[in-house]
Amino acid sequence: MAHIRGVKGQSAAEFAVIMPLFLLAALGMAQLSLITTAAVMIKYTSYMAARVAVAADSRQEQKTASGEALLILNLMASKSLFGADIFPGLLDSGVDIENETMSGAKSAYIRVSVNYNFPLKVPFVNKIFGMFKGFGSPAAFIAGFVGEPYFPLRASCVMMVQ
Q: What are the residue boundaries of the structural domains of the chain, listed by start?
């Protein structure tokens, strides 16, 4: 059987072409799963803050409830998987509680809005995910440019006051 010349490094060449693409896809899925987990946590935070705000008797108790929800967000930022350190000036996170009026409704409603800038810490793909959100926001673009990209997450919940 004759030996075919020029095939000696074929598998190494194929590995060198495919491995970076596979690694990029795997890291991208990891970053996307972290973003999805954070989005679920933000939605649940808005839901729980709305429940507490509806049960509160006064506006001061509602502000206390929003402060506790903001504390949860700050704990999420400090205890995330990759030890997120966001610049304090870029942190646009917060909880807003406001009265909601709906046409034709006799009951009163409260809307709780939660904003959180989720830090992107997975290597290589954090810049790619940050770039997609950076086009609409100058702060996000600057954060990605200086090496601290983030993904803005927003959630809101409306509940009826009884």
A: 11-161
